[in-house]
Structures are given as C-alpha cells and as structure tokens.
Amino acid sequence: MITGIGVDLVQVMRLSHWRVTPGLLERYFHPDELSDALSRGNSTDMSLAARFAAKEAFGKALGTGLAGLVLKDIKVTNDHDGRPQVKVYGTAEAALEKNGANRIHISLTHEKDSAVAMVVLESI
Prior knowledge:
- By secondary structure, the protein is α+β, with helices and mostly antiparallel strands.
- Helix content is 40%, strand content 31%.
- The chain has a single domain (2-122), classed as CATH 3.90.470.20.
C-alpha cells in the first residue's frame, strides 16, 4: 500500500550559491553524498540539486515536510547500476516508521538549470 507521494524541484543555481558558503553543504548532506557529488566534476551542482530535491520530496511524502528531520539523516546514493536509492537514519528513520512505510521508491532527473525528484513511500 502506498503511504505517501512527494515531488520537488530545485534550481541548480541554488546549490552553486550554497557551495561558496562554508559548512552549508555539510549541514544538509551526508558525507557520502558530498563525496560522491564532489567527484562528479562539472555535474556536482546538478547532483547536489537532485539529492536536495529528493530530501524535500521525502518530507512531502511523509506529509510533514522537513519539520523535525535532520537532512543528513536522509542519504541519497546510487546503486552499482546507477539507480538512485534512499537510506534513512535517525530522525528520518523514525519518521518513516511513524508513517508506516518500509520501502522508499525514488526517481531523479535534471536538465540544465533544474533538478526534480519524486518519492513514493510504500508499506509491504
């Protein structure tokens, strides 16, 4: 059963600005996310924008937004085939349990100046 759906759009330029503010990226992104995104060269801002959109979409799927969530507790990575996946810890894991979901589906896309994420929460 689907317990929530969320979608979010982030302007890539927003992340370009964040990168020049010391400590801001570390506040919002899990160290693994940052390491992966920073290794992408010219695609770094696009990758970070998609991952931030995923965090926002996750909050929307919960129905609570980001209230009470530590954003670093939501880690967006790619599996060995490149498919995006979400892993949750701490505050995000507790919110997911409260929602009743035990599975997270995610889709990411980006084009030049925008990144979009869609999250579907499911209880199986």
